[in-house]
Write a structure and sequence with these properties.
Blueprint lengths: L7 H17 L3 E4 L20 H7 L3 E4 L18 H11 L3 H5 L8 H9 L8 H4 L2 H4 L11 H16 L8
Parallel strand pairs: 1-2
Helix pairs in contact: 1-2
Amino acid sequence: CCIDKDSSAELQEAIGSMFSWYRSSSLTLVHLCDVSDTGSLADSVWFERGWTLQESLASHAVLFYTQDWSLYKNLETTNHKTDPTLLEEVGKAAGIAKQHLMNFYPGLDDARSRLHWASRRRTTRPEDIAYSLFGIFEVHLPVIYGESAEHALGRLLAEIISGSGDVSVLDW
């Protein structure tokens, strides 16, 4: 990615803006480097990565490409999110209902479901499992690399509870 990770200010701004960048984009291209022309979306690690959750939810238009940069299933469409069959496949692979993939709004509503979607995902840096959710919950917290994933998630959960009053998020 093009983010200067040596600049804490740039990193903070980038993480805080990422969801809105995807939301404002005209088109999100997803290269599934581990899916062949005959493969399935469900086999891709893309659906296991923490940061790709917001790409799935924020982007209005998405095109999936296979490992050789062929359009997934050679579908003639300008947006895979408008193809009902493919949207069903994406929903199953991501563990997210179709209506959320099509019409997602960031915020604190249905926080338990949003946390559940993230629970299936992994990040390279432990704290990123929480940071990758900032845009989904529309929260603004300091990015503190070096803190543990547990501490980062604790701060995120405290912010969700503070904003929503919903303590059930502790049981996700």
